[in-house]
From TrEMBL:
One of its GO terms (molecular function) is DNA binding. This is Helix-turn-helix domain-containing protein. The keyword Metal-binding does not apply. It comes from the Bacteria. Keywords: Plasmid. Residues 8-41 form the Resolvase HTH domain.
Length: 44
């Protein structure tokens, strides 16, 4: 059920760890900021 993931959560976490801002990551990956926050709170 639900929509299939388009972005890998590991990539989001890697970019945040490298120092990118959450808003910047969302903008570059063309996803919502909430998606970034969800990826950070879960471990695929």
């Amino acid at each position: 059920m639900g929509q299939q993931k388009n972005v890998d959560g590991d990539e989001i976490r890697r970019r945040i760890a490298a120092g990118e801002s959450k808003a910047g990551v969302a903008r570059e990956l063309k996803i919502a900021r909430m998606t970034v926050y969800r990826a950070l709170e879960t471990t695929d």
